[in-house]
Design brief:
Elements (H helix, E strand, L loop, with lengths): L1 E4 L6 E4 L2 E4 L2 E4 L4 H6 L8 E7 L4 E7 L7 E7 L1 E8 L10 E7 L5 E4 L3 E7 L4 E7 L8 E3 L20 H4 L12
Antiparallel strand pairs: 1-2, 2-10, 3-4, 5-12, 6-11, 6-13, 7-10, 7-12, 8-9, 8-11
Bound molecules: dTDP-4-keto-6-deoxyglucose (T46).
DTDP-4-keto-6-deoxyglucose binds next to β5, β6 and β11.
Length: 180
């Protein structure tokens, strides 16, 4: 498995070993042992899956402590531009973001540590987005940042994004008091 330590400290991309043959392909979509060898330790308790049409944008979300979640995200069908924003108060890269294209045909996956807001834009119809979380869903702990905040400067690769009403009213970075 190829491991890429990205510039935002703690964000790690995994490209698993894929076994192709005349029938198709096989890969291990999760190995705690391989994650730990890469320095990623997580008490994975919940798996999520969402399906999105092209142009759907979900995010930027996080859960506040003590329900903060680290995530391991991948795309099982389609393509998505995955974006993480560093919201760790004392981080030298606070407010900076990283965008990684997740592609079902590349099998790549991204580890999003606690202390990051997370979102993605679906680049194809019927994009199946799968992710593991290190804590359970806790609605009262949900927080977020506005996906289109000029201060974040994120190029989502979309002309017209389909966004939930909830996401439209998330705070701008300037008005945000990070819990991390
Ligand atoms: C996240 C979540 C949601 N729900 C319910 C609550 C709503 O009735 C419905 C849709 O939730 P929401 O609109 O928050 O879903 P997304 O906008 O895809 O949210 C996710 O999008 C970004 C990309 C993330 O990283 C988060 O994991 C998550 O916030 O599913 C649950 O029952 N459990 C859950 O863990």
């Amino acid at each position: 498995m190829q491991v890429i330590q990205h510039a935002l400290a703690g964000v790690v991309e995994f490209i698993p070993r894929v076994f192709g043959d005349a029938r198709g392909a096989f890969f291990e979509s999760f190995s705690d042992r391989l994650m730990r060898e890469a320095g990623v330790v997580g008490n994975w308790v919940q798996d999520n899956q969402s399906k999105s049409a092209r142009g759907v944008l979900r995010g930027l979300h996080f859960q506040r402590p003590p329900h903060a979640q680290a995530k391991l995200v991948r795309v099982a069908a389609g393509r998505a531009l995955d974006v993480v924003v560093d919201i760790r108060r004392d981080s030298p890269t606070y407010g900076q973001h990283l965008a990684v294209e997740l592609d079902a045909s590349r099998y790549n996956m991204l580890y999003v540590p606690v202390g990051f807001a997370h979102g993605f834009a679906s680049l194809e119809d019927d994009t199946l987005f799968l992710y593991k979380c290190t804590d359970y869903y806790q609605p009262s702990a949900e927080g977020g940042l506005r996906w289109d905040d000029p201060a974040l400067g994120i190029n989502w690769g979309l002309n017209n994004a389909t966004v939930s009403d909830k996401d439209r009213i998330l705070p701008l970075l300037a008005d945000f008091d990070s819990p991390f």
